[in-house]
Amino acid sequence: MSAPEDRLAELGLSVPDVAKPVAAYVPAVQSGDHVFTSGQLPMRGGELMVTGKVGGEVSPEEATECAQQCVLNAIAAVKSVVGDLDKVVQVVKVVAFIASTPDFTGQPQVANGASELLGKVFGDAGIHARSAVGVPVLPLDSPVEVELIVRVAG
Known about the structure:
CATH 3.30.1330.40; two-stranded antiparallel sheet; alpha+beta; five-stranded mixed sheet; 3 helices; 7 strands
């Protein structure tokens, strides 16, 4: 097991199976020393954790948990391409999309669910640039979607 997977285990978490795409794309691709993940939904056991809008049917706390699951799914996508999470040199960029009601402004706090977990799993290599974007709707009525760009060692 890799060091990042050991840290996940210490948190009571593990790398899930790669989530099956819901359309015509692959979960991740490598270009040079970077891996780009597709947007990952909060799928757990093949189903969305919750559906709806943050600030409406979905609480900020539930959305933060969704962001964490999205990152776990993104980590799984990265691992499916590089084979070993020890190859991750740096999480370069995180983009979190939060489907929210028009008056909800806590997108950065929801995205922290993803960012903080990456820091715990990858340590200093988990420090990244980030965008937290409020949107009106996401695929399957998901409240959160997260994508990553990571740099990996040869």
